[in-house]
Amino acid sequence: MTAAQDLRIPSRGEQLAAYLYRPRDPGPSPCIVMAHGFCGTRDDGLPPYAEAFRDAGYVVVLFDYRHFGASTGRPRQLLDIRRQQQDYHSVVEWARRQDGIDPDRIVLWGSSFSGGHVLAVAADDPRIAAVISQAPFTDSIAALRQVPLRTAAALTVDGVRDQLEAWRGRPPRLAPAIGDPGDIAAMTSPGARPGYEAIVGGDSLWRNAFAARLMLRFPFYRPGRKASRLQMPLLVCVCDNDTTTPPGPTEKAAHRALRGELRRYPYDHFDIYSDPQVKTDQIDFLRRVLPEGAPRPA
């Protein structure tokens, strides 16, 4: 197979760094639009998924959000929920205009934080053909129950300070995305640091940091509630032992969707990235639910 093409996609005045994977079949083929979760980049554990989808006959666009990785956007490490959802929409609209891509067979794929994003994005775009949401963040209230009170308080204070400084035009106050138990960081479960570090690619531009102002908006983000608006097929892959994105709200989101399917795996949050069976299950789902002309097995 040919290597992925490294390209740039415009989004709200910035340039999104993306890898474009094309199968042998010239198309028009279904296209899977992918992005990472909390502070992740396109090089962190996702190329094996993109390659598996490409080998199964799908076009794949794997991109970095604005402010992260190889994409443009200042300040760096600004994790803005609305902007990240806008970036998904920008990539989808770009993909619909490309030769070799069927504009009516665009699939959204997300994992962890982006697993919630794809539910919200698909709810606003009924033309999306299918959605895959892996170990998704679906409810901030359930997630915050996993965060020690001391950590939540410290991050909130940092968030207020960061927002005040942002209004004054100052650089962002950064907080760690992952840490060990007892650290002040967004994710501090026992498996968070080793799990995240295990998927960071050798050439990754990943940084363990995000602008703390996110914590002023994070408690209100509950994308699982959008699942009831989805008319397209939805596959939710839930990790039964997940201590980062609790499985309870995720299961409810899958059941809210008109055409939702739930697959369970005996993992913690990051273990799912290393299981080839997960990729096989997702490809099987796509072959079942996409309209006529879905790719044949490679």
From TrEMBL:
Q: Which domain of life is it from?
A: Bacteria
All residue ranges annotated as the Xaa-Pro dipeptidyl-peptidase-like domain in the record: 13-146
Q: Which UniProt keywords apply?
A: Hydrolase
Q: Name one Pfam family in it.
A: Peptidase_S15
Question: Which GO molecular function terms does the record list?
Answer: carboxylic ester hydrolase activity
Under the heading Gene3D superfamilies, the entry gives: alpha/beta hydrolase (3.40.50.1820)
Q: Which family does it belong to?
A: Belongs to the AB hydrolase superfamily.
The protein's name is: Xaa-Pro dipeptidyl-peptidase-like domain-containing protein
Q: Which organism is it from?
A: Mycolicibacterium vanbaalenii (Mycobacterium vanbaalenii)
